[in-house]
Amino acid sequence: MDKVVHFEVPADNVERAQKFYGDVFGWEIHKAPLDTSDYYFVHTVETDDKGMPKESGAINGGMMKRQSPSESVVIVLSVASLQRSLDKVEEAGGKVVTPEMKVGDMGLYARVTDTEGNVIGLWQNLK
Question: Which ranges form a coiled coil (predicted)?
Answer without folding.
Answer: none
